[in-house]
Design a protein that fits this description.
By secondary structure, the chain is mostly helical. The protein contains three helices and no strands. Helix 1 runs parallel beside helix 3. The longest helix is centred in the C-terminal third of the chain and has 60 residues.
Length: about 110
Amino acid sequence: METSNDDYTTEELSQILDFLAKKFALLLAISDLDEEIQEALISALPHLKLSQIINLVNKLEAKYANSKMTTLDEEMEAKLKQITDSFYQRQADRDEELQKELSNLSATLN
């Protein structure tokens, strides 16, 4: 269902557009889009319907969220590798200690 500008009062439309403009500006500022693309989006904005602006803002928001998830995935993978490496190192240290104790016990018994 497409939203028409006629579905809102002038005041509501003004509030919606103000909110979308602020959100658009923030998302554009933190995006990794080329400056040329950012300028093209800004230039196109006055010519878009409300539903197109909402769609554009939603896409920018999804792109931002996806980039954050990628960063979180990479951080989690690095942390998991660190934990795993630490576990295996502790296990190797314990095995080495156990081997020394077994050697000492064996030497004592002989």
